[in-house]
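hiii so um. not sure if this is the right channel but i have a protein structure encoded as C-alpha cells and i wanna go backwards to a sequence. like what aa goes where. can anyone help
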C-alpha cells in the first residue's frame, strides 16, 4: 500500500476547511493536490476525526498486510502440493495423512486436503500399492 504524502491531520483539516466554506481551489492550491483528490478524501474521511482517520488507516494497512500474507501462504501451499503430487507415491501420502492425524490431531478431511489426496484414495484398500 502506497504511503500518503499527507498526514491524517492535513487531510481532516482540508475537509473541515472545505465544510467551513473555503473554496476547493484554494485548498487544492495550498496542498498542491487535485480537486478529485480532495473529493475522494471527503468521500472516504467525511465525519471522521483525525484519530478515527488514523485508526481507519491503520486497519486498512493491517488488512492489506494480511491479504498479502494470505496470497503468499496460498502460493506456498500450491507449490508444496505440486511437489507432493510429482515426487511421492500414494503409499507415502497415506503415511503422511496418518502422521498429520496422529501428531497434529486433525481429521481425515483436513489432512487429505492439505496433502492433495482424495479421501476415497486414502481409504481405498492397500492391495497392489504403488
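sure thing!! here u go:
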Amino acid at each position: 500500500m502506497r504511503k500518503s504524502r499527507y498526514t491524517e491531520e492535513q487531510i481532516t483539516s482540508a475537509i473541515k476547511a472545505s465544510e467551513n466554506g473555503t473554496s476547493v481551489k484554494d485548498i487544492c492550491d495550498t496542498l498542491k493536490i487535485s480537486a478529485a483528490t480532495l473529493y475522494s478524501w471527503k468521500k472516504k474521511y467525511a465525519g471522521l476525526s483525525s484519530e478515527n482517520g488514523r485508526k481507519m488507516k491503520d486497519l486498512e494497512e493491517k488488512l492489506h498486510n494480511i491479504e498479502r500474507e494470505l496470497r503468499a501462504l496460498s502460493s506456498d501451499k500450491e507449490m508444496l502440493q505440486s511437489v507432493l503430487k510429482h515426487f511421492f507415491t500414494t503409499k507415502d501420502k497415506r503415511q503422511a495423512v496418518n502422521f498429520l492425524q496422529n501428531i497434529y490431531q486433525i481429521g481425515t478431511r483436513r489432512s487429505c486436503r492439505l496433502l492433495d489426496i482424495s479421501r476415497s484414495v486414502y481409504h481405498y484398500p492397500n492391495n497392489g500399492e504403488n
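oh and The chain has two domains: 1-84, 88-130.
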